[in-house]
Write a structure and sequence with these properties.
single chain; mainly alpha; 7 helices; elongated
Amino acid sequence: MLEQKHRALLQEAERRAVAETGNMRACFELLALTGAIDRDCAARLAPHRLSEGKFVILFLLNDQPEGLSPHELADRAGVTRATITGLLDGLERDGFVERRSGLNDRRKIAVVLTETGRKTAGDLLGEHSAWIASLFAGFSADEHQTFHTLLQRIWRNLEAGAKPGNAPETQT
């Protein structure tokens, strides 16, 4: 399941005995899994001419009949205004959204879904949500909580700058 580069790093770390490789392996397995999820997500959205970023914009606009401004979309999607411009250009070119001048202020622009955008968003929201849920099929409530707790521990260690000399969080 590991990428070749990660296998090579593990083998070299083991050969040099420079680090405890169990933690390295766990990190590389997590990276491989996230990469596989990203690739599967991209493959599922590609037939619809969507990237994950474009899909997020459709999702954000789905219940906004009056639309949202580009800066509101950028803020809600967590991307820069330059990025949102590129996403909107592609969505507009493919017929999913249109930019409209504001009724009270023609300098303001609202981005709204077209009929094609509404249909695509409606079709994909349930499908995409079901796919994400299927990734965790068979997990008990306790397993979900344990998984969440472990991920939070990794986040805290990352934020603390888990470096040599910094004590990583221990299980309590």
